């Protein structure tokens, strides 16, 4: 009988713990990479996350000046702690690279990549495509892969932080219509 009572009390305790909600921040507006975050950009949501709640910014947490979004958060999404970072003082600019196809293996948030541009030639041209390196060792902050459905192909987006002196090179490559590709650098590589 005592064993049964202890068992019931244990289950009741677990259920109560699972039902406890906690207040966490959610994005009140879209927060793209590079945005300086303030509490005006956030709203409070009461949610039941259990231990997973540690991965999100608790409501009432002071947002330090200079805190920026390093992985985009859409309006209404809970604010993951991993999506925030301090301004590193380098002045790097958040930029987006659009890929026609799949994201190469090894490319994920936090990885470093080299960016290549390939000149698009007409189908009548006999010249081989020419590729050139546009950026070397840029940090990836987010990878967005389109939802796949039968008969559709989407474009993947890779968000990177670019040194101010390299911004023009990437803008030029994007504007020229060149095909952009990224190549993951080995872990620990500096570019």
From TrEMBL:
Span of domain Flp pilus assembly protein RcpC/CpaB: 90-179
Signal peptide limits: 1-17
Entry keyword annotation includes Signal: yes
InterPro entries: RcpC_dom
Keywords per UniProt: Signal
Pfam families according to UniProt: RcpC
The protein's name in its UniProt record: Flp pilus assembly protein RcpC/CpaB domain-containing protein
Lineage: Bacteria, Bacillati, Actinomycetota, Actinomycetes, Micrococcales
């Amino acid at each position: 009988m005592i064993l049964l009572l202890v068992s019931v009390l244990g289950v009741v305790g677990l259920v109560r713990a699972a039902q406890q909600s906690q207040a966490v921040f959610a994005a009140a507006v879209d927060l793209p990479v590079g945005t300086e975050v303030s509490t005006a950009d956030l709203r409070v949501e009461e949610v039941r996350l259990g231990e997973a709640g540690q991965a999100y910014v608790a409501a009432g947490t002071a947002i330090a000046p200079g805190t920026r979004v390093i992985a985009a958060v859409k309006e209404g999404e809970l604010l993951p702690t991993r999506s925030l970072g301090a301004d590193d003082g380098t002045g790097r600019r958040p930029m987006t690279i659009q890929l026609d196809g799949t994201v190469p293996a090894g490319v994920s948030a936090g990885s470093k990549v080299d960016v290549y541009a390939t000149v698009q030639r007409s189908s009548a041209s006999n010249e081989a495509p020419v590729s050139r390196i546009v950026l070397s060792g840029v940090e990836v902050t987010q990878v967005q892969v389109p939802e796949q459905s039968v008969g559709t192909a989407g474009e993947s987006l890779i968000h990177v932080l670019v040194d101010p002196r390299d911004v023009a090179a990437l803008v030029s490559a994007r504007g020229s219509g060149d095909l952009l590709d990224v190549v993951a650098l080995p872990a620990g590589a500096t570019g």
